[in-house]
Amino acid sequence: MLRNRAVLPRLDYLLAFEVAAELESFAAAGKELNVSETAISRKIRLLEQHYQCALFVRGHRSVRLTDMGRKLLSGIAPALKTLVRVSEDMCAQLEKSTVKLGATNSVSSLWLMPRLRAFHEANCNITIALTSSDVDAECLAEDMDLAILRGEGDWPGFEATRLFGETVFPVCAPGYLQGRAGIDSVDALRRHDLIEVSNNHAEWLNWRTWLDRIGADPDKVRPSASVNTYPLAIQAARDGLGIALGWGHLVDHHLQSGDLIRPMGAEHVRTRSGYYLLRRQGVEPRNESAIVAHWLLQESAARQRYAAE
Questions:
Q1: Which residue from 60, 130, 131, 241 has the least number of CB within 10 angstroms?
Q2: In whole angstroms, what is the distance from residue 93 CA to residue 101 CA?
Q3: In the chain, at which residue ranges do the beta strands (DSSP E only) sit?
Q4: How far apart are CA 280 and CA 270, in angstroms?
Q5: Do the Cβ atoms of 157 and 278 come closer than 8 Å?
Q6: 114-146 per-position pLDDT tens digit
Q7: Residues 6+ apart with CB under 8 A from 113
Q8: Is-contact 9 76, C-beta < 8 A?
Q9: What is the pLDDT of residues 20-38, one digit of tens each?
Q10: Residue 52: how many CA atoms within 13 Å on its side-chain side?
């Protein structure tokens, strides 16, 4: 039995330290572990507080280990490799179970995909079979265990739990504004390229309805480009083709990375709709399905909050 557990720091601190030491960069470690550079920096700082010594010398764009940092790395690296090997062996012995999850194209591409790697690393015996579709009936098919859809929480026959609300604002790549006039008013949008999404969901916000919601004349501003799915609109904005409407939470990681910015600052529209986790009523969920649902709710709880959310 391990008797003096208090002397041990958290495993995620040690993992962040080991990867940052190997890559000599907090930013690179963040990408490797699929978290932000800030999160890596915080874990390292807490680890240094635990040991009450500096583990890294911080440079402008890189870091290097101190003597105490090298000592710690030499001790934990073999232990972490052993943990990885044991975990791989255990996962290989466990039968994989598949959980079928249906979600809109936007949620699948922009919210779920950046998170799936971390889930699979933590749950090696569960495979999430993701169906991405903007046709609600496909996401709610009989064989689906879970679904994530946009609405106001009312799906007959399903238990709906709100994951996040709907806050919508303009986004574009930083480079798009270079050499162009700033956007200090809605009227200034007329001088810019607006990316529209054309689909069969008339209830989803587009540029016309967004402008109407903020009290602007939608006839004064016309989209100059059109795509048929929301992920394509965001990709077009990231590529510098113009300004798209960004949904809070769906574009958060692009805002945090700097791929996208909000050219109109805090200007936004908040609707009554949101994105909900749906589970069929009257059906006892399998343990694996419950694990996936719990993970989704945890991810929701950890999100940043927008206005009135």
A1: 60
A2: 25
A3: 56-58, 63-65, 97-103, 126-132, 146-151, 158-171, 195-197, 225-227, 244-247, 269-280
A4: 28
A5: no
A6: 999 999 988 888 999 999 999 999 999 999 999
A7: none
A8: no
A9: 999 999 999 999 988 899 9
A10: 1
Contacts of 226 (CB under 8 A, 6+ apart): 195, 196, 197, 198
Contact 244, 171 (CB under 8 A): yes
Structure tokens at 262: 């909000």
Q: CA torsion, points 165, 170, 171, 172, in degrees to nearest 10?
A: 160
SS3 198: coil
pLDDT, averaged across the chain: 89
In single-letter form, the type of residue at position 136 comes to: D
Element counts in the chain: helices (H) and strands (E): 11, 10
Residue recorded with tokens 């030491």:
21
Q: 59 phi and psi, to 5 degrees? A: -105, -175
- Tokens 């609600």 appear where? 136
Angle made by CA atoms 142, 145, 148, in degrees to the nearest 5:
100
| 3-class state of residue 92 by DSSP | helix
Provide the 3-class DSSP secondary structure of residue 124: coil
CA distance 81 to 133: 40
CA-closest candidate to residue 139, choices 103, 100, 99: 103
Question: What pLDDT shows up at residue 86?
Answer: 87
